[in-house]
Amino acid sequence: MSVTDLPAPRSLSRQAALAALAIGGLLLLGAALYGRIMGFDLRRDEWMFVPPAATLSDWPLYSGQFYNHVPYSAWAFRAVHLALPGLDLLTSARLTVFVAWILLMGGGFWAGWRIAGSVRAGLFAAAIPLGSETLLSQAGMAATNNLLPLPFILLGLALFTMAHLSGRSPFGLYFAAGLSLSVAAGMKASAIAFVPAVVAACFLLPRGVPLARRARLTALPVALGGLVGALPLIWLALTEPTFFDHILRYHSGPHVAYWQANAASEPGLAMGLPGKVQLAQGVWLAGGAILGLFVAAMAWTMWSQSSGRDDDAARAAQAAGVVAAAMGTAAALAFVPTPAFPQYFIQPLAGLPVLAALAIRALPPAPRTVLLRALPAAAVLMGAVALPRLATGLADLRHPDLLTPARLSHGAEALARLAAPDGLAAGPVATLSPLYPLQAGLPIYPEFATGPFAWRVAGHIDPALRASYVMAGPEDLARLFGTRPPVAILTGFDPALEAPLEDYARAHGYRPRAIPEIQDRYGTGTLWLPAGSTQDNPGGTP
User: Fold this and answer.
1) Strands lying side by side in the sheet with 523-530
2) Using CA atoms, how far apart are residues 527 and 530, in angstroms rounded to an integer?
3) Which ranges does the record mark as transmembrane (predicted)?
4) DSSP string spanning 355-380?
């Protein structure tokens, strides 16, 4: 190489500056997202998903406590909690959500870059989930099972697409695609909606290949990957007699009956088709989603009007059909559950980065260049959608002690201090808000291990189904507490649901003591202690 082949010093300096700017921007974005997650107010759904990270050491997920979802999300929170024992329960769970965000955006960038062959396409694909207002709210911030399946859905579709585009039927990519989609379904059962389109594609693509060869080279590795990912679910279905009672029968029976009777208490739910359509519109036709759909639609329109399509463009169109069909199936399934919540409609968003990348790849060089030039502007618009919420995340990081996990830990410490003089650790604390005593290291009842979700539907469960659950309703308190009285009762977060607990406390001589350190968006904690305890405070606020 001659001296004239070396880059000019000014060019190197500019590249270094751009690289430093990009790295700094990514670090700032990561910090803002982390702050947004950690500063997001506590949500009641987290009473269901976070406690098993601690209680699984004592009680099995279904036969020992009440858990009404497939298990992979709870196991993920448990794994991170065990791997990072220095972190409190909520921090480790929300850190898991943050890692899922990194996988989702990183997977989007990788899919856009590898499929469309452009860094701009990769950045655009990564920005699509970040521009979703729904994902920057409860669906993507709280430690639940809503966001966790999305990176695995995206990776599953991207891996299947790349295998098809290669034209070589690579076993590893097809196997990994099946594994990813299976893991997504283990995170949240509704993610199974992405599987039928991929299964059908295994027997239909690539065209011109005999069916037996497709089955051997495509369907077999996808099926093997899916089987490996589903083995824990299969094992539970065979060995845990209440597995389907907790998941299928609960959501099709008591869950529906409860919300039919209490729909007015939750403004964000939809009981009928018009309300579901409005929720879907707010998720699919706003922010990053609408921009992703627009780019994909524009690219396919340009493709349909072009001539001289090559084999690669044809394979991209075939793969896009698979992704679109999978997204359509997931979108249709989102309308099935009643009641419906906004988070039920987020899964189709995971396919958008792959669909947009395929649309760009299929274009001839000239229109592809034009479209790629416009993608930075679209990514900036998505950033503008996300900016107000991410800015609050950066602001929250200035006060680490005020982050939600820190506030929960402070409340748990106050609870532990009150417990120490009276030896509360020797017996269970009764509460529908189990994270506080669990974080304080205090025992709880298995019937309340995942919060109010079994308690509140007790009146809507038939006796045969109720026998499958480790649960208690208001009418069970005398039996439950008669053999093992609570050493304390923690309330203050839902007056209607907690009324039977407070009535029991008053009837049995417990005295209330306000704990202002325990405070969240639902209320301020009140600890009911037996009369005569060293912490007894007759003047406390009931």
Assistant:
1) 429-431, 488-491, 523-530, 510-520
2) 10
3) 16-34, 95-113, 148-167, 173-205, 217-238, 283-304, 316-338, 344-363, 370-391
4) HHHHHHHHS-HHHHHHHHHHHHHHHH
Question: Residue 452 half-sphere exposure, CB side, CA atoms within 13 Å?
Answer: 18
Segment 231-263, tens digit of pLDDT: 999 999 999 999 999 999 999 999 999 998 888
Cut 0.90: pTM above it: yes
Of 394, 327, 337, 393, nearest in space to 128 by CA: 327
User: Please, are residues 175 and 164 in contact by the beta-carbon 8 Å criterion?
Assistant: no
* Domain segments of the chain as ranges: 35-254+271-397, 404-530
Residues 6+ apart with CB under 8 A from 260: 271
Q: What six digits make up the tokens of 240?
A: 């845990």
Residue 507 CB partners (closer than 8 Å, separation 6+): none
Three-state DSSP class for residue 429: strand
Q: How far apart are CA 428 and CA 417, in angstroms?
A: 16
Q: Is the four-CA dihedral 185, 96, 347, 169 of positive or negative sign?
A: negative
Which tens digits make up the pLDDT trace of 168-201?
889 999 999 999 999 999 999 999 999 999 999 9
Query: Rounded distance, CA 524 to CA 120, Å?
Result: 48
For 292-330, give one letter per residue: b (16+ CB within 10 A) or e: bbebbebbbebbeeeeeeeeebebbbbbbbbbbbbbebb
Residue 120 tokens read as: 């701009």
The DSSP bridge partners found for residue 38 are: none
User: Could you tell me if 175 and 222 are in contact, meaning their C-beta atoms sit under 8 angstroms apart?
Assistant: yes
Asked if residues 361 and 116 have their Cβ atoms less than 8 Å apart, the reply is yes
Residue 3 has pLDDT above 60, yes or no: no
Name the residue with higher pLDDT: 308 or 412: 412
Inter-residue long-range contacts of 195-204, CB under 8 Å, 24+ positions, other chains counted = 195/226, 196/326, 196/329, 197/322, 197/323, 197/325, 197/326, 197/328, 197/329, 198/156, 198/157, 198/160, 198/222, 198/322, 198/326, 200/325, 201/160, 201/164, 201/322
The rounded distance, in Å, linking the Cα atoms of 337 and 190 is 10
